[in-house]
Recover the amino acids of this structure.
């Protein structure tokens, strides 16, 4: 539990005039589960989208597994990396989206084997074996040949988790994975994520599910107005938060 | 009644049920021009659509200028321009020597069609949720790969119905190439008419265009049915699809294509 998987240093990001990230620094160690919480508009989602370079950052640096993400150092300055390198670094980072974003023209199985086959060049037989195992792990071993349109939201999100895991990523990012789900099916997705957390997968989870944060997180990180204002264990965080803003937020949400 | 009496049913009967060798060549020329031009038009439209979305501004301008010119000027002018400016060769395909007038037609129709197809393809690509590209990228796919494997297959479902209309149009529009001397369906009718002054040859040729467009309607239904299969678990019956294809209103505003 000491190797650093993700290190963000002084990340700044603006959309036009609106400064969304005002110098965010965060370190995530191997096997850790980080829950990123905070009011909407605080920059949580933007921050994790920066980690796999779906958003460009204006300054600062983000490293995953020691690789600088999205940029290359050329004589002391950062320049945007080539598309090939960005794509290669992204294979190290799994992402689960709020709206699942499954490929609707492919079955659950095809969704999961697509990237291993097309990006990593895994053989179909190997990719399929692994995909079957992953889909069983998320409880969908019987839905291999089902198209996303025929799956419930919770099932779709679990396929999306399997799809991201299929690349064997060093880091998993979850962008409010249960926000688009009916309350009844939120549990099935959260329990899969809890299982992953216990299995030692390194995860950063943007969530409003405080129950999940309390149970599964190693650290809870609170963001507000583009900055990290509190970072601690769930016990510390929920019992004795230091920051006034955190107390306010928790009193509203709990 | 006078009008009906004046129709020489015998001529029509002969043209429809006993087409001669020259006619068969004309029919072939029309089908060949339509299929090749439409295919090339789709290719050009795809390239232009991708150029339109490029990060490199001059490519976007080029794509814009292309559509601006070729949608903004009459096809007949384009055909004559290409005919008089470029001395296109006769292309020997082995089984058939493509006359230079037919090649002129193919070039003009392709370039013209590409400009319309660009808009259709772009609309198709735009209709795909942005999250699809993000999901593909987050899995390490590169832009071209994501387009090919993820975006275009989904866009195809949106593109095919208007593409079908374009091809229907194309088969009829090939008749314009008659003006530069291509021997296709309309030229055949026109020639027979000028030899005999029997106008019924035009009724017969209209019938043959109807045969072509009707055959296409059926083929389009099959293609759409295939594309629809993946996203919809439940399949529509052939009858339902035929009804949808038959009625232009339901074809255009097809709810079934979107979930």
């Amino acid at each position: 539990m000491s190797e650093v998987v993700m290190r963000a240093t002084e990340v700044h990001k603006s959309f036009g005039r609106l400064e969304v990230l005002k110098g965010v620094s965060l370190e995530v160690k191997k096997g850790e589960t980080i829950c990123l919480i905070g009011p909407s508009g605080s920059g949580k989602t933007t921050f994790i989208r920066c980690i796999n370079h779906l958003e460009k950052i204006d300054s600062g640096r983000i490293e995953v597994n020691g690789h600088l993400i999205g940029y290359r150092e050329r004589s002391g300055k950062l320049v945007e990396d080539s598309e090939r390198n960005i794509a290669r670094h992204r294979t190290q980072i799994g992402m689960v989206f709020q709206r699942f974003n499954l490929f609707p023209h492919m079955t659950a199985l095809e969704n999961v084997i697509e990237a291993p086959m097309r990006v990593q060049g895994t053989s179909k037989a190997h990719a399929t074996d692994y995909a079957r195992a992953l889909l069983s792990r998320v409880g969908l071993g019987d839905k291999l040949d089902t198209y996303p349109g025929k799956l419930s939201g919770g099932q779709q999100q679990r396929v999306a988790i399997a799809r991201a895991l299929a690349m064997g990523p060093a880091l998993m990012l979850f962008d409010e994975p249960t926000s688009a789900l009916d309350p009844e099916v939120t549990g099935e997705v959260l329990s899969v994520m809890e299982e992953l957390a216990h299995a030692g997968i390194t995860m950063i989870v943007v969530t409003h599910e405080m129950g999940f944060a309390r149970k599964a997180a190693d650290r809870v990180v609170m963001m507000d107005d583009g900055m990290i204002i509190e970072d601690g264990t769930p016990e510390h965080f929920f019992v004795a938060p230091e920051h006034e803003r955190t107390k306010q937020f928790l009193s509203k949400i709990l | 009644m006078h009008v009906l009496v004046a129709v020489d049913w015998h001529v029509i009967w002969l043209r429809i049920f006993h087409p001669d060798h020259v006619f068969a060549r004309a029919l072939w020329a029309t089908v060949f021009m339509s299929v090749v031009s439409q295919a090339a038009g789709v290719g050009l439209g795809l390239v232009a659509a991708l150029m339109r979305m490029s990060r490199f501004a001059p490519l976007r301008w080029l794509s814009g200028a292309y559509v601006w010119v070729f949608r903004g000027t009459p096809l007949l002018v384009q055909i004559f321009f290409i005919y008089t400016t470029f001395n296109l060769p006769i292309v020997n395909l082995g089984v058939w020597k493509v006359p230079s007038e037919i090649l002129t037609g193919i070039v003009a129709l392709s370039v013209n069609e590409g400009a319309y197809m660009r808009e259709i393809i772009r609309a198709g690509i735009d209709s795909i949720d942005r999250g699809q590209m993000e999901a593909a990228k987050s899995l390490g796919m590169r832009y071209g790969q994501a387009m090919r494997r993820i975006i275009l297959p989904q866009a195809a479902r949106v593109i095919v119905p208007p593409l079908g209309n374009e091809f229907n149009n194309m088969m009829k529009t090939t008749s314009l190439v008659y003006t530069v001397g291509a021997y296709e369906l309309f030229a055949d009718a026109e020639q027979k008419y000028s030899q005999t002054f029997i106008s019924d040859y035009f009724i017969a040729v209209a019938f043959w265009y109807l045969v072509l467009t009707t055959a296409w309607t059926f083929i389009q239904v099959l293609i759409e049915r295939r594309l629809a299969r993946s996203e919809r678990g439940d399949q529509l019956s052939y009858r339902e699809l035929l009804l949808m294809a038959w009625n232009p209103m339901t074809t255009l505003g097809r709810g079934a294509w979107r979930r």
